[in-house]
Amino acid sequence: MGTITFRYSEAVPLESHRVRIVQKLELLPVEQRLAKLKEAKNNLYLLHNRDIFLDMLTDSGVNAMSDNQLAATINADDAYAGSETFYILEKKVQSLFGMEHFLPAHQGRACEKLLTDMLVKPGDLVPMNYHFTTTKAHITRCGGEVLELIKPAGLNPVSHDPFKGDIDLDALKDVLDRERQRIPFVRIEAGTNLIGGQPVSLDNMRQTAKLCKAAGVPLMMDASLLQDNLHFLKTRDEHCKNLSIKEITKEVSSLFDIIYFSARKLGFATGGGIALRDAKHLNRLKELVVRDEGFLTYGGMSTKEMAAIAIGLDETMEESVISHGPQFIEFFVNELDRLGIPVVTPPGGLGCHLDASRFVPHIPQSAYPAASLSAALYIAGGIRGMERGTLSEDRNPDGSEHFASMELLRLALPRRVFTLSQIKYAIDRIHWLWDNRQLIEGLTFTTEPEILRFFVGELAPLSDWQEKLAKAFRRDFADSL
Ligand code: F0G
Which of 92, 105, 167, 427 has the highest count of CB atoms within 10 angstroms of its CB? Predict the structure, then answer.
């Protein structure tokens, strides 16, 4: 589909799909939101879905499926071994990525478990543009260490750099020269999640591949957020503007030896998989898949899921489909930016990211500013975001806090799910919160798991600030929800 411009009305992002199946939403009164937050121990993962008005926790496994995806699930070929649906998916991945081999896994972190079990040993070092929580957990579980080499602009929340996900090539060259023997692979994460869904440029991937090849180190891509990265390559990268999304995908994947993905993101469905260029690791990986995930023609996925992914990957090759998320995010980010509310710029993929270190600068990192802001936003609007800051980091081996480089509250926009009026509602409540930000205070752990503590840890507010915030809301909004 070509470009559509507005002649008389305000230029707003426009959906290129119609909504056929809907889910009813309920917005609880502010007093009940406060009570639910307390029941969930100030951890928004522990809320019940029915108590949330806008669930912007993640884009993972909650994207809207298309009519064609749904139809394909009905037709899926159910078999423990040899499902035709698997072969369709395998062919799709092989042709899009130009890779010889494909192995299924039940989701992204399962791919990471398989790959790290096979490749990472104690003392190893894994350079990457930036870590993702589950990736880091698996590398450290195997005794390895993550080395983040994101270029400096990547950690600057306010920037005009179109490709903040780029790896620092000088730093990479240096570590490949010095530590080659300790490096099992280099990892590039497309659409770099934890720094605000920021893309990697084609040239940066090319140079990275060159350095890896010269050093004889395999290059791996985490393609979970590739669809956003592809959109940004098409719209921001001079090298790509005359290429189709399919051609850009081919170009990008030709640079990598291994590509894995969470199909909860890439492919608008649920599941995951690993594509390999050559057969070097194939047999070992097959053994691990059948031991940990399931037989080689499902790997922990239902055949319905595999059918939906195969269609979803096709849809990912359409610019009018993959541009939807980034365009809505751009609107969200730009409106907040216009109001002077601190957000990560330029707008990335995945979601709108509030910069908690500037939103609530009075909260020290030890009191989890981004988590405090996420709790406050649930009180203010029934909106669930995801903390992406110090709370999402596990402690250092000596028990001290590992302070995150960025304190973000991510408001994810699952693809094809939210309307513009819902985003405008979110902006209105964030604006109110900004005007009342001095009321927000910190949180502390009451129960703190050792690994990936943000998922199930329990917290409490450091004072009665949440009651005060709810009262201020009631005062300003009278009997409105
Ligand atoms: N890699 C990246 C870049 C991811 O964003 C995720 C998941 C994974 C790996 C793990 O995949 O969830 O299928 O096991 N990100 C989700 C999120 C959890 O909310 O950002 P998974």
Answer: 105
pLDDT tens sequence across 127-182: 999 999 999 999 999 999 999 999 999 999 999 999 999 999 999 999 999 999 99
For residue 65 the two structure tokens come to 């499926």
CATH (one of 3.30.420.40, 3.40.109.10, 3.40.50.970, 3.90.1150.10) for 30-59+321-476: 3.90.1150.10
CA nearest neighbour of 12 among 24, 2, 4: 4
Please tell me if the CB atom of residue 272 comes closer than 6 angstroms to any atom of ligand 1. Answer: yes
Q: Which residues contact 480 (CB under 8 A, 6 or more apart)?
A: none
Cis peptide before 104 (omega within 30 of 0): no
Q: Tell whether ligand 1 has an atom less than 6 A from the beta carbon of residue 262.
A: yes
pLDDT in tens, 264-318: 999 999 999 999 999 999 999 999 999 999 999 999 999 999 999 999 999 999 9
Active-site amino acid positions: 80, 132-133, 222, 265, 388, 454
Q: What end-to-end distance do the CA atoms of the chain give, in Å? A: 40
Which ligand 1 atom sits nearest the alpha carbon of residue 386? 19
The answer for residues whose C-beta is within 8 angstroms of residue 385's C-beta and 6 or more apart is 44, 56, 57, 351, 354, 374, 377, 409, 410, 411, 412
Q: How far is CA 77 from the centre of its chain?
A: 30
Cβ of residue 273 lying under 6 Å from some atom of ligand 1: no
Distance 470 CA to ligand 1 centre (A): 33
| Ligand 1 binding pocket includes 107 (Cβ within 6 Å) | yes
Residue bearing the CA closest to ligand 1, atom 8: 108
Between the CA of 61 and the centroid of ligand 1 the distance, in Å, is 10
Regarding the beta carbon of 271 and ligand 1, being less than 6 Å apart is answered no
Contacts of 243 (CB under 8 A, 6+ apart): 234, 251
Which tens digits make up the pLDDT trace of 392-409? 999 999 999 999 999 999
- What separation in Å is there between the alpha carbon of 412 and the centre of ligand 1? 12
Total-model pTM: 0.96
